[in-house]
Design a protein that fits this description.
Elements lengths: L3 E4 L2 E4 L4 E7 L8 E7 L6 E7 L4 E3 L7 E6 L4 E6 L8 E9 L2 E4 L3 E6 L1
Parallel strand pairs: 2-11
Antiparallel strand pairs: 1-3, 3-8, 4-5, 4-9, 5-6, 7-8, 9-10, 9-11
Length: 115
């Protein structure tokens, strides 16, 4: 089992930046994919960004050029740097990890962007 603990959420003005962190309870370097998802009230959880062990990345069209996913295997941590934030980015953000055929999720951290 893997436990994921998220941090870094908060309230920020439009145009501002935040960095989310997700610390895993064990090493993640052998896992195929890590990612970030988000969910707004009344909407389905959607993919924001993913990164493979080989550092290949994929981003939702709505965040391309603004968000950056990264991973530090030595620290067992996944990051999401969010720049030029918009009110539409307001959501609960979840980190996720695929390992051994199972998907693991963090508890979520709230990001609120004011206009």
């Amino acid at each position: 089992q893997v436990q994921l603990v998220e941090s870094g959420g908060g309230l920020v003005q439009a145009g501002g930046s935040l960095r989310l962190s997700c610390a895993a309870s064990r090493t993640i370097f052998r896992d195929n994919t890590v990612g970030w998802y988000r969910q707004s009230p009344g909407k389905q959880r959607e993919l924001v960004a993913t990164m493979t062990v080989g550092r290949s990345t994929n981003y939702a069209d709505s965040v391309k050029g603004r968000f950056t996913i990264s991973r530090d295997n030595a620290k067992n941590t996944v990051y999401l740097r969010m720049n030029s934030l918009k009110p539409e980015d307001t959501a609960v953000y979840y980190c996720a990890l695929s390992s051994g055929g199972y998907d693991y999720w963090g508890q979520g951290t709230q990001v609120t962007v004011s206009s």
